[in-house]
Amino acid sequence: MQSFSDTLAQVFRAIAANKLRSFLTMFGIAWGVGSLLLLVGLGEGFRSGQHRNLAKLGNDLVMMWNSTIPAMANQHTGMRPYKLTLGDADALRHLPQLRAVTVELARSDLYEVSQWSNTSSHVMGVQPNYAKVRFIPLVSGRFLDDADVRDRRRVVVLGAKAAKLLFPGRPMLNEIITINGTEFTVVGRVDKISRGSNESDDQKVYIPITTMQELYALKGENIPRDALTSIQYQPAVKGEAIAAVAAVHRVIAERHGFDPSLKDAFDEFDTIQEEKMIGAIFNAMDIFLGGVGVVTLALGAVGIINIMLVSVTERTREIGLCKALGATRRSILAQFFWEGLLLTGVSGLVGIAGSAALMALMQSLLTGKMPGWDPPRLVPWSAALAMGSLMLSGLAAGLYPASKAAQLDPIEALRRE
C-alpha cells in the first residue's frame, strides 16, 4: 500500500514537471487572496480613521449651535434668530434622556499676549465637565474646576498650538498671559488634538464660562446676557441618540417659542448618527469587496480544476500503467486530490502572507501621515473568509479531477495516445 510520503513525492514531481503552469495557477490564487485582504484592509483603514477623527471630538456627542427659526417648515424667508443660553443648558440637565450636558461660549476676536509673544486664538468659555464630554487630553497641569467657575477666576488652559505660539520653548505653568488686557494665570496645557492640517482645535484657549460671560459676553441687540455659542450633550443610552435629540428639541423649542417639528430650526451635529452612517457605508463596502474576493477565489478554483483535468488528460497513459501495475483507485484519487489541495493551499497562504507583510509595511510608513485615514491592516474575518474559501476551492479542485482519474479503466487508458 502506498504511503502518504510516497503520494506527496509523486505530487511534487508532477508539479515540478510543469513549473510554469503550476506557478501561473498558484500566482492567480495568491493574487486573488492578497487583493481580497488588501481591499478589505483599506476599507477598515478608512473606517478606523474616521472613527478616530470622531473620537477626537468626543464619544457619544451631539453638538447644537445657535440657529434661526423659519416662519414655516422648509421656508427660509422671515427667519427669526435665537441664542442658546445657560438657562437652556440647566433645563436640559434635568432630562433623564441625557447623561451629560456642557456648554461653549467661543470668540475668535480676542488678543492674547505673553512676555514672549502674542497671538489671536479661539477663546472658549467652558465648564469643568467639558474635558469629559469632549476629547481634551492634558499634557501638563490641570483643567478648569468648579472653584474656577464659582469664583470667576482668571485662569486659562492653553491648546497645543496656542501654547507653542505664546511660550516658544518656555515653561508656561503658573505664568501670566493677558486676554484683551486682562491677566490670566496658565494652569494647564492640552495635548495636540487637531486633525490633519486644520489646527483650529489646537489654537483654542479655555477659561471658566462665568469669567468669559463676565468679561467677553456676546454683544448685540436682543442677545441674552447668558448667551452661548453651543450646547453639547451625551445621551443616557450609549450609541443611541434618537430619544435624547427628541427630548432636547422639545425643551429648546418650548423655551424659545417654536414648534419642535421644525427641523430647520436646529443647527446640530450628531457624531453617533455620523458614525453609524460611516459604519453602514463601510459594512456595505466590506460585503461587496468580500463578495468580489469570494468570486475571484471561485474563479481561481475553476482554473485549478481545469488545470487538474488537463493534467489528468496528459497523464492518462501513466495512470493506466500505474493501475495495471497494481495502483489502487484510492492511491490515484489521493495523488490528484493532494496535488489540487496543495496548489490551492500553498498559493493561498502565500497570498495571505504577502498581503499581511505589505500592510505591515504600510502601517510602519504611513501611520499618522494621512488625516482621516489609517493604513490598511489585516482583518481577522477577511483572513478567515479567505481560508474558508480556499479550503472549499481546494476540495473542489482536488476531488473532481481526482475522481475522474481514479475512474479511468487501465486498458482504455493504455490505449490512449
Account of the 3D structure:
- This protein has 417 residues and is of the alpha+beta class.
- The protein folds into two domains: 4-55 and 276-415, no CATH class; 71-261, no CATH class.
- Helix content is 53%, strand content 16%.
- It has helices spanning 4-17, 19-55, 86-92, 130-133, 146-150, 160-166, 209-216, 242-256, 271-314, 316-324, 329-366, 380-406, 410-415, and strands at residues 62-65, 67-69, 80-82, 98-107, 112-113, 118-119, 122-126, 138-141, 155-158, 176-179, 182-190, 204-208, 230-235, 267-270.
- The strands form two sheets. Strands 1, 4, 5, 6, 7, 8, 9, 10, 11, 12, 13 and 14 form a twelve-stranded mixed sheet that branches.
- The longest helix has 44 residues, at 271-314.
- The radius of gyration is 34 Å and the shape is elongated.
Question: What's a quick, concise take on this entry?
Answer:
This protein has 417 residues and is an alpha+beta fold. The protein folds into two domains: 192 residues, no CATH class; 191 residues, no CATH class. The chain has 13 helices and 14 strands.
